[in-house]
Specification:
With 76 residues, the protein is mostly helical. 64% of the residues lie in helices and 0% in strands. The radius of gyration is 15 Å and the shape is elongated.
Length: 76
C-alpha cells in the first residue's frame, strides 16, 4: 500500500488497519481486488480509486444511519 501523507491520518488511533481491510473488502466487491494486488494503489486509475472511496463512504453512512435509528437518537 502507498504511504499516506501526514494530513490523511484516521481520527481514531489504530483505525488505519481497519480502514485498509475495508478498502480491500470494497475492492473485492467491485471485482478489482486482483488488479489492485498486482498493480498497487498508486497505479490504479483515479476512477477506480474514487469508486472504492465512494462505496466506502456509502457503506459508512448506511452503518451510521442504522446505528442512529437503532439507538432511537435524533440528530438536530
Amino acid at each position: 500500500m502507498a504511504r499516506r501523507s501526514s494530513r490523511r491520518r484516521p481520527l481514531i488511533a489504530g483505525a488505519e488497519g481497519v480502514l485498509d481491510r475495508f478498502k480491500l473488502e470494497v475492492a473485492n466487491e467491485l471485482g478489482i481486488a486482483n488488479q489492485l494486488q498486482s498493480k498497487g494503489w498508486e497505479d490504479m486509475t483515479t476512477r477506480e480509486v474514487g469508486t472504492v472511496g465512494g462505496l466506502m463512504v456509502k457503506k459508512m453512512l448506511k452503518e451510521a444511519e442504522n446505528r442512529i435509528m437503532g439507538s432511537g437518537k435524533q440528530i438536530q
